[in-house]
Amino acid sequence: MKSLETKIAYLDENYQILDRNKEFYTYFEKAGFLYENIEDIVRESERQNFMEFVKTSRNRSEFRAYPFRKITGEYQYNIVYICEEIHNEKNCIAVHIIDISKAYDFYTATNSSQKKMNYALGLTNEYVFSYQKSNNIFTLYNFLLNKRIVVYEQELESWIEQIIEEGLIYHENIDDFRYAMLELKSCQPIFSTKVNSSIRYTHSLFENLIFTAIRVEDNDDIFMIGRIMPEIYVEQSDKSTELMQELKLDALTGVYNKKAITRFAQKRFSKGTKENAMLVIVDLDHFKPVNDAYGHLAGDKVLRKAGDVLRNAVSDVGVIGRYGGDEFLVVLEDMNEESVFRGVLRSFVVAIENAFKDMFVDIQVTASVGASMYPKDGSTFDELFKKADFCLYRAKDKGRNRYVFFRDDLHGELYKKASEAKTEGIKYDVREVLELKSMADFLLQLGSNPKPAAETVLAHMLKTYNLDSINFYYKNSSSGEMERKYCLGEQLDSLKTADYIFGSEFKTALAGKPYIRMNYTTELREIAKPLGKILFDKGVKSTILCVLGSVENPKGLITFDRIKEGALWAEYEVNCCVMFAAAVNLLPEEKIQEIFA
What pLDDT was estimated at residue 234? Predict the structure, then answer.
């Protein structure tokens, strides 16, 4: 035991300290010689329990964990073992104190993983319990060194009544105890309750105990696996739940770990399971710069907060886990309509952006999201993951802080090429190249066949950019109104005119540029909010507005509108819209009128 740096205090029959060894003095610094009574070094709230243990446990091979105060005022949990020894020719009570972390490290090197857990539980006198939903059996056991000892094994209701009859629950706490423990039957993902009980000592020493458990699914049965520990120990250290959480939860973020979420997804996306489920990958943008500039503690804080934010956003519509690094995996249920899953995916993006808006001065943490639908996009987890991952990289390439879900009409050809090339994307800029080529063809034909060239490229943009309508407005020389002369797609009566172009809100939002980009008309920077409200009231959710003429003297306006759902614009989409308007703006007025007649 020398390697464990055992601290020993030798007591007389009145529990006064007669002597200490060197390790005791070193650990407690100068206070090691100042303390006269052994109970003085224990936290006040634990002294009664501690002294009862000292009085009753001599030579019984029992261990306990108690918080001991150092001279700095800090409390550190240590394992305590009591025995009788001869010291300086006197019969003494010897209190052996071992740093719990050192003890665990010591046994890490000498025991299997199961024995390590058992030993740690035995040293701290913690109880472990399990509840099996299929047969309603509650089992309670503890550990003596490496041996598991079953204390109770019976139906849950029977166990509840038995320990009440045995007087192990404080009388004022009985009704609350019954109610709380019966909640265990619901098998929620996490269970926790506080009970005033003497179950650890089986006599009148009552203490506040925390019952905490997590749900584990195995072979179509459901179990609650939990531990019972003193409240004060929970307050002192999260270590009390780490061994249990490693079974299923990610220690940093609190969501499911990679193994758990992967197994769940593999089982969920298998033959014969319910349709309209979605696999989603959420990846944090600009996470590496946070680690590089602010350190890994800041990075851990970001991951922890992202886990909380995404868990709240997922709520009861799905299951979330940390897949690795700054990447999270989500399984969404009942995604029957496009408007529904668009809303959920967008909520992930918006929630992350808002959560980290003011955290760093020079770095904005956002999220890129890729998604695929079961069984439309794949019948296995692997197929769906590859397509969701493809869409994630599309979101990254389109400027980050957005979501992309798999659409065969948009992504099928490129995904096939990427798969054949066995790369993550064959440089996902192929789509951008295709769009620029389409714009180049328009420019080449604009001089000789302006109307067919414009109609072809606008029809392509309406479909490919997921637009609802494209509107062309021109100023009426008589009335001075900005009237709609042409509309491709859905025609809203509220968009027959665009007289807002003459208002101060429009000029302010332009900020000197010949176009305005609005990802969401409801979420804008301060200078664009008044114009955003005008457009939102007209039924526009997101838009690109391109001025014809000049900012000072506008003659016309081309708008690329999303009416049903707002969405983030890809950079190439903005560039192509602006390029189209700029090319039209160079034409003589009669040619413009001809195109949009």
Answer: 57
Confidence at residue 583, expressed as pLDDT on a 0 to 100 scale: 92
Q: 331 pLDDT band (50/70/90 cuts)? A: very high
**pLDDT by residue (tens digit) across 558-570?**
999 999 877 778 7
CA distance 103 to 356: 40
What one-character DSSP code corresponds to residue 256? B
Distance CA 552, CA 560 (A): 22
pTM attached to this predicted model? 0.42
Q: In Å, how far from its chain's centre is CA 597? A: 53
Residue 562 to residues 347, 457, 517, 536, 567, Cα–Cα distance (Å): 18, 17, 12, 11, 8
Any idea what DSSP says for residue 171? Answer: G
Query: φ, ψ for residue 466 (rounded to 5)?
Result: 60, 45
Say if residue 365's pLDDT is above 90.
yes
Which long-range contacts link 191-200 to residues 24+ away (Cβ below 8 Å)?
191/215, 191/224, 191/226, 194/231, 195/169, 196/169, 196/170, 196/172, 197/163, 197/168, 197/169, 197/170, 197/173, 198/167, 198/168, 198/170, 199/127, 199/163, 199/168, 199/228, 200/125, 200/127, 200/228, 200/230
Rounded to an integer, what distance in angstroms lies between the CA atom of residue 568 and that of residue 583?
A: 24
> CB neighbours of 54 closer than 8 A, spacing ≥ 6?
11, 15, 38, 82, 93, 95
Check residue 581 and report its DSSP letter.
Answer: H
Cross-strand pairs, 556: 474, 548
CB 159 within 8 A of CB 213: no
**Whole-angstrom Cα Rg for the chain:** 34
DSSP run (H or E) holding 209: strand 207-218
pLDDT over 70, % of the chain:
83
